[in-house]
Amino acid sequence: MDDLPNVVVTGASGRMGRILIGALQRSDVLRLSGAVEKPGNPWVGRSLSDVLPSAPEGILVSDDPLEAFAEAQAVIDFTTPEATVAHAAIAAQARTVHVVGTTGLSEGDLAKLRAAARHATIVRAGNMSLGVNLLVQLTRRVAAALDTDYDIEIVEAHHRHKVDAPSGTALMLGEAAAAGRGVSLRAVEDRGRDGITGAREAGHIGFSAIRGGDIVGEHDVIFAAPGERIVLRHIATDRSLFARGALKAALWGQGRSPGEYDMLDVLGLK
Predict the structure, then answer these.
(1) Domain 130-236 in the same topology as domain 6-124+239-266
(2) pLDDT above 60: residue 1
(3) Distance (Å, rounded) from C-alpha 26 to C-alpha 90?
(4) What region holds the Dihydrodipicolinate reductase C-terminal domain (predicted)?
(5) CB within 8 A of 89, min separation 6: which ones?
(6) Band (2; pLDDT cuts 50, 70, 90)
(7) Which fold, 6-124+239-266?
(8) By the 8 A CB rule, do 250 and 97 touch?
(9) Predicted TM-score (pTM) above 0.85
(10) Cα(92)–Cα(98) distance, rounded to whole angstroms?
């Protein structure tokens, strides 16, 4: 028991934070050692067991990530781009594994994560489920096999509270499709259509986002040509699958050399 890696959950009061805490409580290979929230959050300073009755005793929710990370071997981070970038610098200083499930990161944010990865192990993925990462691989292979007679459209659906679009998973799939065709996604992406847009450009990769209700996550990659369509689909019905992937990544990262990794590395799919 004493040899288990200590794990800190950031964004502890959020939807994914609570799920991660529950998953860590059930884990026999990792141990929850800390919970972090932003300053001013009503959980800060309280015992985690007071706000989550099933949580272990003795863990205070902190707004000081440096103090929490210093005692941990891994940090699991499903927060905001701004918070994740700040956490990356602190995790690098503490030399702890940083598992990042945050989406909506800008190119500038990603550059800062790459800089942090020179000193620490970062495992980052727009989606941490096994099924989605298999879908990414399939998308790349199908895109490589088909020419531009097949238009590629990525349709994603999430709950009404999701703040970024396209989803991180949709962008993963778009990157995979572009890589299969040997092009840059930025050069061929089409993220929105409104009004008189003209005919679809050959070779472009389109994105559509649906937001509503409590949809956990649905992603379709459509290859459409005259006379036929190929549809690759993944449907998530339970957020605990993302937590399972995050815990797997936190354990996998122990003892790894500094660098930026993804779930394909964790799952041995590269």
Answers:
(1) no
(2) no
(3) 27
(4) 131-267
(5) 112, 116
(6) low
(7) Rossmann fold (3.40.50)
(8) yes
(9) no
(10) 8
- Environment class of 212 (CB within 10 Å of its CB; exposed 0-12, middle 13-18, buried 19+): exposed
Q: Single out the catalytic residue among 98, 112, 161, 162.
A: 162
On the CB side of 182, CA atoms within 13 Å amount to 5
Provide the CB-side half-sphere exposure for 179 (13 A, CA): 12
Angle at 63 between CA 57 and CA 64, to 5 degrees: 100
Among 161, 133, 100, 132, residue whose Cα is nearest residue 219: 132
Asked if the bond preceding 166 is cis, omega within 30° of 0, the reply is: yes
CA distance 132 to 236: 9
Provide the pLDDT confidence category of residue 126 given band limits of 50, 70 and 90: confident
Q: Which of 158, 219, 234, 248 is catalytic?
A: 158
Active site residue 162: yes
CA atoms within 13 A on the CB side of 58: 4
Domain ranges of the chain: 6-124+239-266, 130-236
Structural domain 130-236, CATH architecture: 2-Layer Sandwich (3.30)
Binding residues for NAD(+): 11-16, 37, 101-103, 125-128
Active site residue 270: no
Binding residue numbers for (S)-2,3,4,5-tetrahydrodipicolinate: 159, 168-169
Of the candidates 212, 211, 216, the residue with the CA atom closest to the CA atom of residue 238 = 216
Binding-site residues for NADP(+) sit at 38
